[in-house]
Amino acid sequence: MAYQRDFEVLLRIFEPLVVHPELSGYPVSENRETIMKLVHADADSRLISIPPDPVADSYRGTPIFMSAADSGDSFDRVCPAQDDIRSWHALEALIENSTRHELDMVVPKAARRRAAAHRVEWLQEDPDTRVFTRTSAWDVSPVWWLAIDPQQDQVISDESGEDGFRIRIRTPILTASARVDWALEIIKEKSRLTSVVESTEMFSEWLDVFDMNSILELDLGGMSEVIWPDTGAELVSDWVDCLNVDDEEGAQRAFGKYTRLWEMLGLYARSS
User: DSSP secondary-structure letter at 53?
Assistant: First the structure.
């Protein structure tokens, strides 16, 4: 039986297939569940091996498709799985923030050597270094909500899959980028939350590297039943709006409510 990953929340960029000639040979289909099962099975087999190998080394070129019919326009779109590339980024973060003893327990030396070799091989291919997927555990970053508005964007509710109730929210990347840039101007000038400002700057830069006909999708996954419909998006919007009109008390109230919501999700995570 595969491990459950109901805590995962995924933010994906689906870029037009026409700008990915290397993927043009794949038949466009509704393949999301198939790809995710393969990726999860690969991860499960590595994690139960002795010694464990938490660094993925497969499925880089395997795209998740969003067909033109699904997106409602003339573009077929793709989001490469990239689990190996994302693993390398995660490993870098671990190396920067862990002691050598902690690192050896989490990622054995043999796995780190193998990951380093695979990364060098990949870099020699003059690759596209962009990362198309961001992952969160148990909740949604408030910075992500700056790009997404569940009241205006396309909301896809799916209860037909074997994984149960799922919510996905989609918005054109130009809309998402404009929202984030607008919010960034306000919070840079009027917020004292330096970490949020820095995260928003990095998020804005990330959105700007993709084709203008891309679609940003927030997949709440197994957290849909926990988060939806009280996502906290409205509180983040209220926070920015209050900052914009110099309503400091209103801004503190909105962000405080969001923080309490965040803390409740944290309790949910620790209880599971």
Answer: -
